[in-house]
Amino acid sequence: MTSPTEEAIGGNGAIPIAATGLSKSYRDRKVLDEVDLRVDPGQVVGLLGPNGAGKTTTVKALLGMVHLDAGDATVLGRPVGDPAARRALGYLPEKFQYPDWLDGRQVLEAHARLIGIAADVRDNAIADALRLVGLAGRGDDRVSGYSKGMQQRLGLATAILGRPALVVLDEPTSALDPIGRREVRDLIRTMRDRGTAVLLNSHLLGEVEQVCDHVVILHRGRIVHSGSLADLAAGVEVRVTLDRLNEEALAVLGGFGRIAARDANTVLLALDDAAAVPALASALVTRGHGLQALVPLHRSLEDVFVDLVGPIGDGEAL
Amino acid sequence: MTVVRLTLREAANRKVLIVGAVVSVAFLVLFWLGFSIAFNSIESPSDPTDPAVGATIMTVLGLYAVQFLAAFMAVLLASGAVAPEIDSGRLHAILARPLSRTSWLAQRAGTFAMLAACYIALMSGAILLIAASIAGYGAIAPWRGVALLALEVIVLVALGTALSVRFSALAAGVIVIALYGAAWIGGIMDIVGTALDNITLQRISTGVSLVIPSDALWRGASYYLQSPAFLIAARVEADTGNPFAGNAPPSGLFVAWAIAYGTTWWLLADRWFRRRDL
Asked: What is the ipTM of this complex?
């Protein structure tokens, strides 16, 4: 038997986030340009991008806080802006602050009332949320006495309170130390295991890499990549060193992918298919090219990310 | 009602209520002391209406001070109703809940309006009770007077809230206080215009009261809060009048205007808040 607090606030099986063509400009500056985003039930989606890429604007648009110029979006099956869309949604804002004249439990109690958690299970739900974020025992302390990290944990507790169907976390570890970051990653995994969909907004590649099933990379308001992490890292690079790098050898290499760089007898080849390494070796050997070395290179998410967003411009930072 | 509860708790924890209560009690004690000393010093009045005149002038001045305190309280609360909540990020956590912006704003500003209206009702009630117990003071229509005072602070809360959606707390507060000051000058112009029989001054005053009806509402309220004996004396002798108070009841049209004025600012506040990106 499940205890009352273990019952999630249902999303009625609706798609947590379905958004197409989200566009928003501030004066002449386009901050969102035709952004499509989908989060399925139980999926953890990472929204990644340098500062100023439009991540927070996307999230705020989905929560009805920023009005869109164009685009359609539904959250848990309801159009954005409709308060009912936020019934089974938890949110940790990027700029989090909670009334410092209340204690942690009172903050959660107010949120519990706002989402309509019944009075008889409220205390259990609050205790559950405090425990999951590592604030058990600190609930009766005033927020004014909390460190920044504890305030962020309290924000996480409000976001997961009542086990919502969708949790939106905007830079959830910005104020946390490495241990806190690991705990948040574990918390996200726990939520996923419970069937909660998570939209994780982050500029921390490692964070996204470790917990997300799907990554959307945003740059200057546009999506530059959307897919699974496996897709993203699929393009493997190999370093090929031959006795002599002639036109014929280059033609063979070109048949397997794109030549990213070359010098006298070495090329850096971005393979179209990661599984083609043996075929490449055999093609070079059969045609008599003296193969000195063929080294597959691991591309980290960071390499991919930098390739996609290019050099970081003014006002942007990783 | 959660936002009402949160707002009340905020007022309580930010010491607004306790400081307000301490200052108000001190003010009432001072009023009681001053009123009793002054009233008892009118021992052998040369004119039988003198005690009523003295009591009325003192009571009206006391009520004027209460009105002034309540107006400032209303302005300070309302001008910080929205902008600091957005800037701090506190609002984002709350509005991510199934709560419409209209509901949040109505609960928050409504709580401030209720606090200011309760404050003015309690304080003016206390002043009238002190005057009644010492001098047997009776106002013409105390309920009407207090209702108009409550309307004044509610109008100020609506105006302050609307400006707080568009401007910082400081800017919104400065604007409303400047308007309140302009209304006060408008009131003086009305008194001077009436005394000098100058129609231009009276018209300017009327214009000001339409732009910001706070002082005209006070003058309307003060008419009802004076004693009947005082007003009769004031009609008989032109020099007996109270420069802070009105000599005529407010017109129904003006009261309707003040209600429409407050409602309009409230609707604007709601509209601006719903349209704004947070």
From this structure: 0.83
